[in-house]
Amino acid sequence: MNKLQETIDRQKQEMKTKRIIKLSVLAIPFATITLITGMWAYPKYRVYSQTMRGQADFKEAEINRQIRVEEARAEEEALMLEANGEAKREEIKAEATAKAVALVGKALEENPAYLRLHWINEVAGSEGDRIYIPTEAGMPILEAGATSK
């Protein structure tokens, strides 16, 4: 039985060896092909990867530029609206001032005594010793009878 056992063990060992040889025969060419394929494909993948990254960066820059353009347009439009509003306010203010001046002018034309009353009140409130008197020509007599101190 020993001999039989030895023969069986030897045959098992030979089968293991044959199996290892078969796997080696298959694995070595597979590993070699894989290595060669990787050496060929990796540089191409790097170029492809950089191309894709470049395209993505370009697209991002283009979108950012469009955003800046739209923001500038919106700011310009806001400034134009603000300027138009300011111009409209100034126009309304000028019209109101013109109407007020016209009303005051009309009131003064209809009542010239108001100007004389206003002049008298101003002269009465002055604290100086000089009095300016308007004449018929509209030119005041300056320092008439002024005395030096």
Question: What's this, in brief?
Answer:
By secondary structure, the chain is mainly alpha-helical. Helix content is 82%, strand content 3%. The relative contact order is 0.03.
Describe the structure.
This protein is an all-alpha fold and 149 residues long. The chain is 82% helix and 3% strand. It has one domain (12-126). It is built from 2 helices and 2 strands. It is rod-shaped. The relative contact order is 0.03.
- How far is the N terminus from the C terminus? 161 Å
- Approximate strand percentage: under 5%
Number of strands: 2
Whole-angstrom Rg? 54 Å
The shape is rod-shaped
Give the H and E element order. HHEE
Order of strands across the main sheet: 1-2
The major β-sheet equals: 2 strands, antiparallel
Report the helical percentage. Answer: over 70%
Mean pLDDT: 85
Number of domains: 1
Strand-pairing-aware structural class: mainly alpha
Query: How many helix segments?
Result: 2
Weakly predicted, low-confidence segments: none
Characteristic key phrases:
rod-shaped; 2 helices; mainly alpha; 149 residues
Would you spell out the secondary-structure blueprint of this structure?
Elements: H1 2-110, H2 113-125, E1 133-134, E2 140-141
